[in-house]
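Input:
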Amino acid sequence: MKKMRVLSILVKNNAGTLTRVAGLFARRGYNIDTLTVSATKDHRFSKITLTAELDDIMLGQLMSQTAKLQEVVSIEELFDHNSVLREILLVKVAVTHECRSKLIEIATVYKGVVVDLSRESMIIELTGKPQKIDAFISVIDNFDIINFCRTGVTAVQR
Amino acid sequence: MKYTGAEIIIKTLLDEGVDTIFGYPGGTVIDIYNALYDYQDQIRHIRPSHEQGGVHAADGYARSTGKTGVCIATSGPGATNTITGIATAFMDSIPLVCITGNVASHLIGKDAFQEIDIYGVTMSVTKHNFMVSDVAELQNTIRKAFSIANSGRKAPVLIDIQKDVMQSMYNYKSKPSLPLSETPRFEQSGIKKLSEYINNAKKPIIYAGGGVNSANASTELRELMNKADIPAVNTIMTIGVLGPLDQLNLGMVGMHGKNSSNFAIENSDLVIALGTRFSDRVALNTKHFAPDAKIVQVDIDASEMNKNVIVDYAVVGDVKEVLTELLPLIDAKKRQAWLEQIAELQKDDYQAPCCEEQIKPHQLISYVVNELGEDLIVVTDVGQHQMWTAQYCARTKPRTFLTSGGLGTMGFGFGAAIGAKVGNPDKPVVLFTGDGSFTMNMNELKTAVDHNIKTTTIILNNHTLGMVRQWQNLLYNKRFSQTDINHSFDYVKLAEAFGAKGYSCKTVDEFKAAFADSQKQDGPVIIEVLIDQDELVLPMIPAGGTVEDIIME
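Output:
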């Protein structure tokens, strides 16, 4: 059964490495949902964190295919129970005088922060597990969302 | 001591034991050729007519010798011309090191003359590739390329080198080859479990693929077969690894494999897959492949596990190493009932008819391989002739059958035959090809003449793209769209125009006479054999089908 997987890939910090990993996913017919790349404490390596909907067979295939790339040092699956997963959301919502405080109230429950406010709109920043971001977006769904952007998952094993 | 980058390239290639290069000069590799000028006594350089032919030649050289094939091409079109060759080698796990020149660093990314991002383009058809923009990295990059190409599952590696790198000076000191990365380690408990599957099976069958060849494991494979009385089927990549002299080898399996081989898989209770990837030309219908059997797999590449067919148990490791550990745990036994059942199936195997007036493909292939013996290296292109050759070439030694199995590259043959002969000057090399495949890269006949490379090319001319026509005939209601080749090509004159000797024949006697004469020639020869247009490759299981769908006539 397909489910959302979080993969953490330690790669050599060389030009073209991201293309190799992303290209492999594309070539083998797997869709990447989110992807983040960041530095590690050792500048020779970078960390790619990505999420994709995969079943067990697909996961095994993808992990062994990715591990074959010369630039990949290691690949592992991260789980909720042994890792801290975080994502940042920026959402811009059209607001009127009447609904503004209602929206701030909801954002506060989710520990969101209003980072920009104008007469017509508001930008809220929210950090949390992907599920929390999903939940917040669904709760404010009846507001007039102009657009939003999510960073994708970044994660560290406990 | 300091040398130019170009000299470092040549010196490092010599350090890696390279004595043969297939390459084509051009603007961005002119420095390499300038350096090569001083090493003509140590490196034999073969210039093809087209870079694709050059890569196929390096590939044929690698397949037939077990060494790494090396090729050079210039930037832009020279580099893009190598792609089909590289992809062909990639699909069949053949080690190559391809060196391409690129424009100087100040021109990179400016769409300069003959600039192409070959590094980006070849990412998906190489195991790894490099772009060298600093002469300090050159020597180690080349050493790494050879190590990567030959470690684990072998494959091509490309090194793209900017022109100013070849002109820069840097320190060079001879260094030995880098060690190959270790083969995957496997647990003794895994070997034990594998042995239990095999010892408990009543009707096991070995399905042996190209990995057995890459691992040079034919001896261990035979030991396993003989010790436990296990029959085997071979894929097109294992022709020669297992041959007709192996009593327990049933022959080729798959789309054009033997009826009995396919039925044996179907009726088995255990499939032992060794160095093979359950390709769609063997596991035609993955849902019904060996329906009543457990499947165990040994492969050096972990990503081959559960890729095409879900297996019951797998050991990731080098086939030779795994079999060596496994053999002592295998019970010696006889499997008379199972072998009798298979012998029964073999009675129904397809028997091709003979004809004296117009020679049949199997007759001429059998004749040639009988005449030239077990050292003969057989090369094919792709199509009907490839399958006939696979069915009847009767090779008994590894590395004596060269074919584009994975990519199925028409035009592979002539280059590969040249490479095979260059690597094996004392062995006869025969290319069986079709009129379609031959015309794709026949310009390499010029290469064979130029370098006086004695190859025998036998063109099975049916004036059509036979394999496509066969599908149109059997599966597309005889709508022969764009397959017939209506030109009245004169192959004899063509051969003469290139400076080679040509023959044309139709009957068995004519063919025998032409072949006998051809073997007395010093240079390359072309023999056109006119065969019937409606000749079919049989048996055939249509794509996606099962043994139940087999076509026998």
